[in-house]
Design a protein that fits this description.
This protein is of the alpha/beta class. Helix content is 33%, strand content 23%. It has one domain (39-212): 3-Layer(aba) Sandwich (Rossmann fold), CATH 3.40.50.300. Helix 3 (108-114) packs parallel to helix 5 and helix 5 runs parallel beside helix 6.
Length: 230
């Protein structure tokens, strides 16, 4: 990937970012510095950010550091409406061929456990939709948090790297409806739980990944946006 006017900057926890100066939508390339090595086979990476901030794209790039046996767990229920179906189709097109996709598993923690020995790496996209599904099922606040903890414990027990995508949903106005406020609060609490379990936490802002926790040993080159979505 060609770099245009970039220079490396050391970010939090030794994470390096090459920032573009061309005023285009950023894209990125993930490698290791010093010389490339595979990611820790037991690492848990959490990626958070706002809508269309580049979270899923960054997750796919990071997963390229794993081996080819990637499993993609998509937590969103398909067929809700035309816009959601197109959103899901766009995510499907962005995944490399050869990856295995499991859509809308009801028992997320159990699915992760059953993938032992069958997956070389896992992407969960996303925690926010999983929380929404639990709320729709009528789970209590305590039950939602308990199931998120159980999910994170299941991730910590597997011997392959896991990337979890989530969303920052509480940075805007306070929702008018009680259900919206409850979901916002539960999504924020779920993110805190997951971040506590994760080895690495990245925040995506305007397509640029910022390391909030961990990040050592990874190099992210933020380039001119040639491959960024339009």
């Amino acid at each position: 990937m060609k770099k245009l006017g970039t220079f490396p900057r050391r970010g939090p926890s030794g994470f390096f970012v090459g920032l573009a100066s061309q005023g285009r939508t950023p894209s990125f390339r993930v490698s290791s510095s010093p010389p490339p090595t595979s990611l820790d086979p037991r690492c848990f990476i959490l990626i958070t950010g706002g809508t269309r901030s580049g979270k899923s794209r960054f997750a796919v790039e990071l997963a390229g550091r794993f081996n080819s046996r990637i499993v993609y767990l998509a937590t969103c229920r398909s067929g809700r409406d035309g816009e959601m179906r197109e959103r899901i189709a766009r995510h499907r097109r962005a995944r490399p061929r050869g990856w295995t996709t499991i859509e809308h598993p009801r028992d997320l923690a159990g699915t992760i456990t059953r993938l032992r020995g069958k997956a070389g790496g896992l992407i969960i996209d996303c925690l926010t939709m999983y929380v929404a599904e639990l709320v729709v099922r009528g789970e209590s606040d305590a039950a939602v948090q308990r199931k998120v903890r159980a999910l994170c414990r299941a991730i910590r027990r597997v011997s392959y790297p896991v990337i979890m995508v989530t969303n920052e949903v509480g940075s805007s106005v306070v929702p008018e409806q009680e259900l919206g406020r409850r979901f916002r609060d539960l999504a924020g609490l779920a993110n805190q739980i997951a971040a506590g379990f994760a080895d690495h936490v990245f925040l995506l802002v305007a397509g640029i990944p910022l390391a909030l926790k961990g990040g050592d040993g990874l190099f992210v080159d933020v380039t001119d946006g040639t491959n960024a979505p339009t």
